[in-house]
Amino acid sequence: MFYWKPGGWCASNSGCIFWRDSNGGSTKQKKGSLYFDSISSGDSTINPDFYDWNRVRVIYCDGSSFLGDVDAIDLKTNLWIRGSRIFDVVMDDLLARGMKNATNVILSGMSAGGLATILHCDSFSALLPNAKRIKCVSDSGFFIHGKKLLGSKNVEEYFNSVVAYHNITRFLPETCKLKMNSSLVSL
Q1: Would you state the pLDDT for residue 99?
Q2: Helical H segments across the chain, by residue range
Q3: Which whole number is the average pLDDT over 133-159?
Q4: pLDDT score, position 172
Q5: Residue 23 pLDDT > 70, yes or no?
Q6: Shortest CA distance to 60 belongs to which of 135, 112, 12, 124?
Q7: Helix or strand or coil: residue 162?
């Protein structure tokens, strides 16, 4: 069972610096231990279905649902916008540790981690060709593009900024790019 933590997004150097230096964008700010709870709990009375599964919880640390891919490093701020590379390295490490032998796998996440689950589901599944069952479960990771919702224009502009800042257009599903306003999916 693989779980992406929630975390939010950033769409500018100042936003990403604030996010990085807060509790959300780095493990340096974490106090104490992280623990597995609810569906990832190892307690059979709390989690009778999955208590004995291998569990991985990845701290959300990139501000782009693990999709960013910018070659340049901002040396003044030490910002590395490379969430997709973090995803690749984490997967390579887990495969080497035995995930390649998994027969039943769940990829899940919440909020920004839930969006990461949606957008990485196919590539994650492709890494495990021998698994009998792979399920992707997004908890509150779907963000409605409602034109008549209060603040929808601001949300649309913000997501466009995230896409541009993190250079993630190529990772977005073609079906979405075809349906959306071209300014939302192009740089």
Answers
A1: 94
A2: 13-20, 83-96, 112-126, 152-166, 174-179, 182-185
A3: 82
A4: 79
A5: no
A6: 112
A7: helix
Q: 58 forms bridges with which residues in the sheet?
A: 4
Burial of 10 (C-beta count, 10 Å sphere; 0-12/13-18/19+): buried
Answer whether residue 35 shows pLDDT above 80. Answer: no
SS3 category, 100? helix
What one-character DSSP code corresponds to residue 106? E
**DSSP-derived pairing of the beta strands 133-139 and 104-110:** parallel
Q: What is the pLDDT of residue 130?
A: 92
List the structure tokens of 125. Answer: 């599944």
Residue type, 57: R
Q: Mean pLDDT, to the nearest integer, of 57-82?
A: 86
Classify residue 172 as exposed, middle or buried by CB count within 10 Å of its CB (0-12, 13-18, 19+). Answer: middle
Q: Give me 58's structure tokens.
A: 């990845």
Task: Spell out a b/e string for 17-56, using b for 16 or more CB atoms within 10 Å of the CB, else e.
Answer: bebbeeebbeeeeeeeeeebeebbbeeeeebeebbebebb
Contact 54, 106 (CB under 8 A): no
